Amino acid sequence: MKCSRNIELMNNQALELVKCLWKEINRQQDVDVAEVIRKPTNLLLDAAEVGNFRFLAELIGSYPDFVHELDENGRSIFHIAILNRHMNVFNLIYEQGFNKQLLATYLDSCGNNILHLAAKYRSPSPYRTVSGAALEMQRELLIYKEVEMIVQPSYREMKNYDGKTPRELFTVEHLELLRRDEQWMKNRASSSIIVATLVATMAFAAAFIVPGGKDDKTGLPIHLRENWFQVFAISDAIAFSCSVISVAFFLSILTSQFAEDDFLRSLPLKLLGGLSVLFVSIVFVLVAFFSTLFLAYDHGVNWIVVPSGLVSFVPTVVIALLQVPVLKDIFCSTCCPSLAM
């Protein structure tokens, strides 16, 4: 926390220094602003490459024409930002009100338009906070779709000097990632389906081996009229139902075709649904166990029941700490992609 505050403070101080220097440059009548930016290196293009959004926003806000600055490969700051997956820099194209269609017509030295650059895969991956390879593919698709919205229809089918359209280049560049994604999804679904099956088995067995046994005369559970038995019955039913539903989700993942576009919404939503209901089923299995403890030992030994019940919920906390970040990432990238990017 302290380190993060220090870094934020240094960034703010650096930005204030840039503002002061920029004001001083603007006061000089005989200074060529473009030359100041270009030498000894092109500050704008360097900032776009590392994703320095605040620096670029300050300079472009003062001199909008800087967006037409090109590097030796014929790429603007937006082309460089897309290539390096800095979406906050790319979003300046909307905030500053530039001619998006004009900027999208720029071609680099290899004949790539901005959609070709969105189709390229950067290695190593810039998504250090993404949970799992499948979400990395989703981010790549989201960025491609975002850029596709600003280019003219003819540029979506334009071929570069290698004879590839943007979509063909995307497929070639992401072939290895697609294979990793498929294996990651299958492994996650396979391991989760084992857990879901175990939960369903336990919940099914508990429904017929009721705590306290049954009355020999009536055949009804002995604790039928007690509140904790109602809690047990409802929790066990929810746990069984949710575990079966999660099995269905994971089976649908395993039987998917794993096409590129499946990783945009279909597969992440299935994974989100499967993991969510599996988590719910585990929670209610533990609730059923807790209620069983009260039914079996609630006769003068509460000092054993309460601590034992509380300890039984430790796995719930552990599972929540492990699964909630993953579920949050999947939810944000699938249902709120603007926040994820």
From TrEMBL:
Domain of life: Eukaryota
Matches recorded under SUPFAM superfamilies: Ankyrin repeat
GO cellular component: membrane
Residue ranges annotated for the PGG domain, each copy included: 183-295
Membrane-spanning intervals of the chain: 189-209, 229-254, 275-297, 303-322
Coiled coil feature spans: none
Keywords of the record: Membrane, Transmembrane, Transmembrane helix
Annotated protein name in UniProt: PGG domain-containing protein
Species the sequence originates in: Citrus sinensis
